[in-house]
Amino acid sequence: MTVTNEKHSRELTEHFFRNEYGKMVSVITKYIGTENVQTAEDIVQETLLKAVDYWQHNGIPKNPQAWLYTTAKNLTLNILKQKKYQSEFNEQTIEQNSEQLEKLEISEELISDEQLKMMFVCCHPKISENSQICLILKILCGFSISEIANAFFTTTETINKRLVRGRKLLRTNNVSFKLPKNLNENLPIVLKTIFLLFNEGYCPTQKNELIRYGLCLEAIRLCEILVNSENLEKKSDCLALLALMYFNASRFDSRMNVTNSIIEMDKQNRKNWNQELINKGIQNLNQAISEKKVSIYLILATISANHCIAPSFEKTDWEEILSLYDGLIELEDTPITRLNRIVALSKVKGNRKAISELEHLEKKSKIDKNHLFHSTLAELYKLENEIEKAKNSYKKAISLTNNKRDANLLQKKLIEVVPI
Q: b/e per residue, 232-245, with b = 16+ CB within 10 A?
């Protein structure tokens, strides 16, 4: 096999690892039970290792997905028949599950059904919220422990402990692999996790890629499963979150240049924004609004919609956006929400007012530990021609960022203020 083919094989395997991991774990768990979810993950890991080896030596099969599921199915059948797992199942269960697994035919409908169940299994009431999110990101979305740690701004050791606790509770509480009677009760944590997944793809914390399309598309796909499910009665939050992700995804092609550097919204070519995704966002947002439930996702989606329909950055309805942020603060008064509000505030009430609010926010919170606080302050100082303060704020922002992509953008801005 040539080096090019080997590289292509590995890339395709990695693609399937990300896109099929959670699907396969969900399907396998149906047959071996939630108490054995760790075993289901091990089976999928072994399946993907076999794929790397087989595809490198024999070429990529015509239907890679079918190859993966067939291999995973055979490995699962072997597990069910091994004596060391007899204590986990009674003989009748083993026979029934083996027969069903033998006849298993993979379809998108089956995968969606099992993933929907897995979403809510991971959100069992006895599992802590942090562990719930970790389980979904690891089991359903194929996140590595280090990626989850970065998403939570914590250590891999902490995340590993949360996963161990979560799996233990699934094992000891005999959690059934079925949908709960009241899906809406655990829906908020599912949506929170999906949004976290999208944000990790949209603004990667670990890799130096500007956008990790696969993660964003996976988040959208999971949310679409919720929206399309007949088991959910109230879908306003699901529709609003899906709209928000569509709006943000519509700007993918405009967020970076040919050298993979960030292009900020005020400099983006809006002709490159994906109108089809914007239209999908508007459609879902209108459906969410029709349910007449105000929520964080609804307000965020409406803010994003205002950006998407504005003919230019200057002609954006900043007063409407500021009003929406004021409403959002009533629901979620956090330093980050107040920081995000600042741009709209500066457009409506001026840069001085915005600077004053940032200074007040710094005194009342620990927002000064976030590089975005200092970069926002630097922008406002620059607009007010306070060059020395702008320079110092840019330097502080650079020192706080952990992502080379962000550091490069800030360094470029610093040079523009104080040319070398």
A: beebbbbbbbbbbb
